Input
Amino acid sequence: MKNSGFQRDNLIVIAADQLRYDVLGLGVTPNLDRLMGESVVFDRAYCACPLCAPARGALFTGTYPGRNGSLINGWYKPEKAYAKVRADIDNLYDMMERLDMECIHSGKQHLFMEGEPLEKRPESKTRWLTTEQTYKEFLNEHDKRQPGGNRFRTQIPEMNGGAYTQVRNYSNASTGKYEEGYSYYFDGYFTDRAVEALEEVATDKPLFLSMMHLAPHPPFDIPEPWYSRVKKEDVHLPENTGVWYAHQSPLQKYNLTGVIGNQYSVEEWKEPFRVYLGLVALLDECVGRVLDVLKRRGLYDHSVIIFTSDHGEMLGAHRLFQKMCMYEESVRTPLSIRLPGGRNGGRHMKTPVSHIDLLPTICDYYSITPRHQMDGRSLRPLLEGGENLEEKPVFIQYDGNASRGNFSRCVVAGKDKLIVDLFKDETYLEFYDLDQDVLETDNLVFKEQYDGRVKELLMLLKEHEKELGDEVKIPEVDLVQFRDHYQ
Output
């Protein structure tokens, strides 16, 4: 395929699921390391919500969850109304179809829109190679079991609509060896189908590939050789693993993160961390296979290639598990953008950016006018060699998992980060200087010399919630009284 400007270049979007920003470059990601060496890397990229469906709703629409309506995963009634992006909001798939791109999706499909699911719309021009449903059908056809099972799930209490509690089962940190093998594993299946399609795709018009991996999301029941890829003696846990800090939010004890995470000691985190790194290595193998076929077909150097993750994974940090909270391990994501030919590659940007900035960037390069107003801004100035972009605060929200109940709001402004946790009638504040304390161990709300900055950031959050019409209202907080209550 000949390169005739960004309007003609291929667009490859590759997303992991639950990939921590700090596990790349640890010797298990050679393919991703090479890709990032040819890309502009955003070292401080954040998701808009640390949860699967709302994270993708924001990424694929350039809007905050509070703007587009996708706030939770919403598996159960009556909360499903809070799980879908509004019908009047445009999305990347529809935009690429309007450009007459050759559109292919393989992998997890958690962009939930009002109306008929994207993959079932008869007018869709995207080739929906795989989804989680087709994966289940594939396993049934070959009489293979799905990874995971009862041993890999734990019962937890979950608020429904903030009104009543139900008991539900969610992934824990148990590990196992998936005996069915790579071809029947989630990402093996997703990648096999993508590679088959890419080997045959016509090159007479630009390609849009959406490659949505499930790895390294639990269950940590993974095939060889990746199960044994990392030796236990080679695992070096971050210092905040398995540690509950004196002034971290006690409201996390009511959330999935704390209920499951508090079941493991520091020593017990080594095994899930080891297998998680093996799963990251499996992800890297899958990404490498996709990149290799793009190179063989002459598509690689004429492509914009975006790599990111929907959110991160606590994996024992702060004695928490999964995501669903505002600590860096949960909300900070890998993000790299490779321009055609690797132009400007190898540069690292320190400016805080958000997933809501990705679609405006794509629209900028591909001359697209979306049907809605986006909240993000184009990162093109940074990609084109500029060192700075006007610094703006990054906002993140969390409204519950399957149901609304646990709420969090966060703002990152430069090096400063304020977290507001809300559960029932209780509000808890955390403030961190990320330049000095990236592991978030010292909550500066308990040092009155920071009261002025805390109040400034609270005001930013309240202005943001007012702009979005947020149903969750941050109450007034008397900082002196707060310290008296929680000291």
Notes: The chain has one domain: 6-388. Residues 1-6 have pLDDT under 50 and may be disordered. The first strand starts at residue 10 and ends at 16.
